[in-house]
Amino acid sequence: MSRPPTFTPPPGTRAYQLATGRGTFAVHDLAPNGIEPKGTALLLPGFTGSKEDFIALLAPIAEAGFRAVAVDGRGQYESAGPVDDQFPYAQGELARDVLAQAEALGGDVHLLGHSLGGQIARAAALLDAAPFRSLTLMSSGPAAVTASQQERVKLLQDGLAALDMAQVWEAMRALDPPEEADTGDGNGPLRERWLRHSPAQLTATGEQLRTEPDRVDELAARSLPVHVLSGERDDTWPVPLLDTMAGRLGARRTVIAGAEHSPNTDRPAGTAAALIAFWESVESTQEPRSR
């Protein structure tokens, strides 16, 4: 679970429900102050995460001239979704949500997905790459998560089938190592976020993490600039596997020193700098967007 440093977005951020052709989605939206944005970045969170996982990236992205829009996917935190029907959370449905979000933002967006969000972002680009200037896969691998992570996801799925969300939260906290225990300040918003997730969303997307096929070659066939970014350690997809995936994609590869599975919260300054450098390189080499 990503642990954002705060749940309070930076000054100037608009928090609202983005209206799309597939419903509304909660976003944090920060644009550069007083200038036309160089581009728009659409940021998709990972499994059990939310738009708040990108809070520390919003200000540096906007200061570099890009509009940053972090979104809660269907059934995540402040975006509504059914609690007992898994069909709306099929990967294809979530990918179509992303296409609708990109359209609502005017298209031509730099798409970023963290972990599970990366696999949903990939699925969206495979359905239709036209709305995207680029794709960044952050700590998101080529196929299913490691065997040990598959076991953890299965344990969570079993818990969701037998317990309510509050009971599952308490069970998860009991399993946390001491160094990951939250202070009183952090436990409240993290717990609130967890309780507002849809159990059907967690069950369905957890199954995707356990069974996702390798679709790297399909993505490589698309003419889309790709960036593979990760920390220097990752127990969800091993870093050498991400290195190999980047090679197969012909992608830019960035490893953030001192970060693990969530470089966006572990080392936000270095992560933001790497993202901005990639997006600026794309803007300098692609045809200008129509205004």
From TrEMBL:
Residues 42-274 form the AB hydrolase-1 domain. This is Alpha/beta fold hydrolase. InterPro entries: AB_hydrolase_1, AB_hydrolase_fold, Carboxylesterase_BioH. SUPFAM superfamilies: alpha/beta-Hydrolases. Keywords: Hydrolase. The keyword Hydrolase applies. Gene3D superfamilies: alpha/beta hydrolase. GO terms for molecular function: hydrolase activity.
